[in-house]
Structure formats: C-alpha cells, structure tokens
Amino acid sequence: MMHDGRVALVTGAAGGIGRATAQRLAREGALLALVDRDDGVEQVAAQLRGAGAGCRAWVLDISDASAVHAAVEAVALSLGAVGILVNAAAIVDHIAPLTTMAPQAWMRELAVNLGGPFNLIQAVAPQMIGNGFGRIVNISSMAARGGLFRQAGYAASKTGLLGLTRNVTLELARNGITCNAVLPGLIATEKVMAMPQAIRAAGTAATPARRLGEPDEVAALISFLCSPEAGFINGAEIDISGGAHLNTLAMGSRKENAAEAGPAVPPGAQASS
Fold first, then answer.
1. Of 43, 185, 200, 234, whose CA is between 20 and 30 Å from 247?
2. Which residues are catalytic?
C-alpha cells in the first residue's frame, strides 16, 4: 500500500477534509495520529481502529506550541516518528468589516490558521530530518489569492500559509522533505453544506465544473502528495476547485447575497483545530 507503516499526523481530523484525509491515509496503510480541538476526533479514531487501522487521537489547540510539541513527542512514543503531516485545521470565527474587526479575533485566526501549522512543522521536522523523509501538506484556500469579503483574518492566514510552504521547501528539501499547499474551492464539507443555498448556488455557478468538490477528492490529492512518488513536487500551490480559480469568486461580496443569505463560509473551510 502507498503509505504502508508510515505515521501520518492529520489536524482538523474531526470533520471535513481532515477526516476524509485520515480515512484515505488509513485505507492506504498509514498509522494515524489525529488532532483536533473537537473531542469528536476521538470518535473518528475509534471508527478507524474498528476498521483495522492503527490510530490514536489527541484533543488540543494547535496554537499552543508547548501542547503541540508534547503531542508530537507522544505520537513518536506510541506510533513512531512522524513521516507525514497534513495541516487541515482552520477556524473561521470572525466575520466583520476591516474597520470594525476586533484585534483579538484577528490575532486568534492568525494564531490557529498560520501559527498552528508552524508549530506542527517545527515539532515534526527533527523527526523527518532524522529519517531523511517527510511529506507536509498545508491546506490553504482559494481565498489566499482572491481574498474573502469581510474575512480578512481567514484570507490573510491562508495567504501566509503559502509563504510558510515556500520557506519550508527552501530550508528542508535537501533533507528529503517536501512541503506543498493545496487550495480547495467549494468543497462539500459539513460547514459548506450548512451555508445558505443562495451562496452555494452562486459559488457553483462560478465554478466551471458546475458542482461542489467532494472531501474525498481533496483527500486523494493529499494522499498522492504524501507518497514516495511525489518526491520531486515541492513548494507547489495546487488548486482543487473545479476550475473556479480561473474566475473572480468573492463569495459574500454582493450586497444582495449579504442581505438575503448572510455571511459566507470560506471555500475549503473545514473542521476547526
């Protein structure tokens, strides 16, 4: 199997793209360390164990560097050195105009969506360097390039994740480590399916494929990027949007959408960390 025996740490694994990725990696032979701030991650881990996978779960806030480092040490002791890291966790906690956005809310989104992946990468890098192998995939968003109306914190954090991806590649590629970013469009996660129908319809209409993506489709891409075969793909930013990245999609920016349907959920939004 593609990932037979490798230890994969997946954040945001309680739902959405994170859960789909965990399930995919488990089917392909990986040992799973699942992380989320939602204790539902324990149920996901139990389901994977029931299906025969080696899997453990940790409930923690990835913005807490000390907690992250402690968890990574625990993963190494219980499952082995981490060879795969998928940073899927993100929050969308504050939707407001720039002029009234609360500074603490801005900082919180940066701390989780950008600081969290930094904490995880810093914690697992020594293990990957020691083994001469590592695969890191950061889940960014179409919002990283186009922005997102009244969601400056989310958009800025996802753009920052692209810069982090590039620097990890520049510094660690010589150690057999790859770091790539995936930029989902509208994916049929729980949060996206809870959006007002008018906003989903507008997003679908702006997508050449004329449909939502499936979490399993994103998971398949992530799985390939984590494989030995993807060893020369490094520092890449890969859109998985059904072609929506070719259009200007500023969800929630039209007054009629805001008035009729309320705030949008970002493309690629998933379970929180």
1. 234
2. 154
